[in-house]
Amino acid sequence: MGDRDLTRFTPQHRSAAHAATTTSAPRWFLREAVGVFALSSSDIVVFFAIADNLDSAGVSRTANSLITRRTGMSRTTVVKSLATLIDLGLIVELDEKRSGAIMRYAIPAQRPLTHREIGI
Known about the structure:
Layout: H1 16-21, H2 27-36, H3 41-52, E1 59-62, H4 64-71, H5 75-88, E2 92-93, E3 103-106, H6 115-118
Antiparallel strand pairs: 1-3, 2-3
Helix pairs in contact: 3-5
């Protein structure tokens, strides 16, 4: 897949110290996506674990083991939630899947539309 041409959400931090103490996620996620896509609590937690790792370019280099450790969820639950978030377009994989490798993810700047909103 490589880097995709998409407008990414990039966290707005005032300084490196501020970035180290805050997590930033797009406002559309809790305000719209959780209700529109009927996300489970594990989906929400996995989304925020990825958002917590975003760099200044809007890319998160995250391994499943890191998400598992930070969220306290099982690997199976993490993998299932990741698949759900990717299928819904709430996070985007920037690399081909490789078992056991650190993956690069991005979060779109705007909430993806549903089939109903598009009219399909």
